[in-house]
Amino acid sequence: MFDYIISDSEKAVRDETRAFVKDEVPHSLLKKMDKDEIQYPTEYVENLAKHNLIGLRFPEKYGGRGLDWRHEVVALEEIGVLGMSLGCLYSLVSICGEALNIFGNEDQKQRYLVPMLNGKKFTAEALTEPRGGSDFFGATTTAEKDGDEYILNGEKRFVVGAEGADFFLVYAKTDPEAHRHKSISLFVVDRDDGVNTEYVYGLMGTRGGGAGRLKFDNVRVPEENLIGNEGDGGKIFYQMMVPERLTTASGILGTARACLRIAAKYSSKRKAFGRVIKKFEAVSFKIAEGITLLDACRNQVYNTATAIDMGASPQVQRRCVSESKKFSTEKCWEVINLAMQVMGGIGYSTVYPIERLLRDARLAMIWTGTSEIMSLIIQHEYYDELLSEKWLGRDIEQDALEAEAEEEKHFG
Q1: How far apart are CA 14 and CA 75, in angstroms?
Q2: What is the DSSP secondary structure assignment for residue 154, as one 8-state letter?
Q3: Is 244 one of the catalytic residues?
Q4: What is the pLDDT of residues 294-326, one digit of tens each?
Q5: Total tally of structural domains belonging to the chain
Q6: Mean pLDDT of 358-372
Q7: For a tag site, which of 147, 150, 238, 353 has the least CB within 10 Å?
Q8: HEC profile for 182-236?
Q9: pLDDT exceeds cutoff 70 at 398
């Protein structure tokens, strides 16, 4: 394991979370969620709050622990063993809490952040729309000012936690004529304000997390529920990229680790051709590949957490979390596939949980920004940094034999 790169404090959080995962989450809950018999595991979130395991990064005065990202990454890997649904519901507090903690005023923190961290209120983020997911600034949900209220109209879909949420963070257009980056605002919308929630999805995996559709039909929201100022939605969204993407990158480490462990144990017991199958390189090399990929993913994620904790610039944070999200989700998906291949036909059955975890993991490359969007951000931030800095290192171009042949360096 990675004991040698985590502090005693981080080990304590890991062990505490691991004990919770082992002792406080019944196997029957996961089975019922996968069979869609449970749409929202209320008691699970309440129990997390009871153990003070959610919102680790937020100030103690609001109910958090005042810890950093490395502590949260450690906890997220352990929660990830349970699969993507329970991992996402754990992460929602980190994601929505980010907006409230950084951009919310004291009244909003007392009314929403505190009860959320205490397990008294549940939340969900309403971002994706039927007409677009990756095109954030193309949102068509509107919020029109009317006196001391805003009137919301539109739809959001794929809202994880929609079934159980008491309040939603909703992005809506407040000024369609403004520059697109200044056209959107963020609101806290209480369920009892008249939000219509529909549980409508037959999902391949990640079941039981209450994913649903929200409809806003002249829903009135008091102006005191506007987070920040009008037009701040884009700025807030860019900040929320960090928890949205790093939580996914961290949680899937646990999912892949669990699958690899199952497959490795199986390979040490299953016999074929007179010996246990781990003796065959066709099998053991798959385990080796999985170990290598998982270690590489963990290194990437921990490096990103460390960079953020040490105060990296927003530009570097956006690039690093995008790299972590893309690399970790794609390579952990490969690890889970390798585990299933080692298991053979039994891994494809419901006798082992790998088939469920594989179904869960496929979504990780789609939600909170697809791998393609991650690549777009990575290259954009890299080029922006590359072309704006004054390089003080060695001029490698001059090491070529004909470096002085300037007439050959045509750029079109």
Answers
A1: 5
A2: E
A3: yes
A4: 999 999 999 999 999 999 999 999 999 999 999
A5: 3
A6: 95
A7: 147
A8: HCEEEEEEEHHHCCEEECCCCCCCCCCCCCEEEEEEEEEEEHHHEECCCCCHHHH
A9: yes
The chain-wide mean pLDDT, for the chain, equals 95
Assign residue 346 the CATH number of its domain: 1.20.140.10
End-to-end CA distance of the chain: 52
Report yes or no: 195 and 215 within 8 Å, Cβ to Cβ.
yes
The pair of structure tokens assigned to 34 is: 């996968």
Report yes or no: 275 and 299 within 8 Å, Cβ to Cβ: no
Over residues 274-292, the mean pLDDT reads 98
Please name which of 188, 172, 189 lies closest in space to residue 231, comparing C-alpha atoms: 172
| Longest CA span, the chain | 80
Q: Which residue has the higher pLDDT, 358 or 200?
A: 358
C-alpha torsion sign, points 228, 232, 238, 243:
positive
Q: Are residues 89 and 188 in the same domain?
A: no
CA dist 283 → 274, 289, 338, 343, 344 (Å) = 15, 10, 9, 9, 10
- Region 53-77 average pLDDT: 98
Rounded average pLDDT over 284-289? 98
Give 3-state DSSP helix, strand, coil % of the chain, rounded to 5. Answer: 55, 15, 30
Count the residues in the chain: 412
pLDDT tens-digit series, residues 234-246? 999 999 999 999 9
Q: 129 and 44 in one domain? A: no
Q: Same structural domain for residues 180 and 270?
A: no
Residues 245 and 382 in one domain: yes
Residue among 10, 77, 125, 244 flagged as catalytic = 244
Question: Residue 409: inside a domain, yes or no?
Answer: no
SS3 annotation, 224-280: HHEECCCCCHHHHHHHHHHHHHHHHHHHHHHHHHHHHHHHHHHHCCCEECCEEHHHC
